[in-house]
Amino acid sequence: MECFIVEKENIDLEKRELILAGDEAHHATRSLRIRSGDPLLATDLSGTCYRCRVERDVPGTLVCSIEEILPNFGEPKRDVLLIQGLISQPSRWEFLLEKATELGVHSIQPIITERTERDSFNRERSERILRAAVKQTKRARILELRELSSFGEALSEAIKEGRRVILLHEAANSSSSISRSWLKGDDAIAIAVGPEGGFSDTEMELASKARAEIVSLGPRRLRAETAAIAALAILIDQ
Ligand code: SAM
User: Fold this and answer.
1) How far apart, in whole angstroms, are the C-alpha atoms of residue 153 and residue 144?
2) How far is the CA of 170 from the centre of ligand 1 (A)?
3) pTM above 0.90, yes or no
4) Which of these, 93, 167, 170, 171, could form a disulfide with 212 (CB 3.0-4.6 Å)?
């Protein structure tokens, strides 16, 4: 069943009806040839999916009856914030946004560190990628893309939110390797991943003072996006 985005104002719970409009209706009717009687899934991007059936196919809109309301559809139990050093190549940054959505990340906090090679990213393009990814992966929530911040600010915010902070570091003691057993659970966490050049000594000290758990993913040096994806696959229990 294909998934589409529905605007909140186009959902009428009393009538148990919703309307797909604009690009979403266009995509459904023109590209996917969806017609009256077909089932579909609609996400409001903020926590609820609706299993629906198309009732009427009016030019430019699809009127659908709601058959089932699915709160938190496709959402993992664990609330994960990914604190990510900006990646210099846009294509690798965008790949990470897509994979983070697929793996169930709640929010991404992009950070500028001593060794990041960029100081900005294309927010509009990133948000387009997140919208496409949420439909593809069928989730009730769109990943929250936070405003760029420093590493220090990101750490403080994560702690204020009550998260356990796990920092990935290539040179971490191998005895502190990331493991499903000690990280199992559904407590809120933040995973910090450095940019291409890694975290500096000053940043590592800051993380230790903030009581971040510094962990390794093994003896090989991974690209930043590979490290993030590998950690997410271990830490997000479905
Ligand atoms: N030479 C850099 C350094 O000193 O960390 C390598 C940076 S690596 C390309 C980018 C980021 O991916 C690192 O800052 C770290 O967060 C994560 N990373 C890469 N390999 C890792 C590993 N084996 N274990 C844990 N984290 C790793």
Assistant:
1) 17
2) 4
3) yes
4) 167
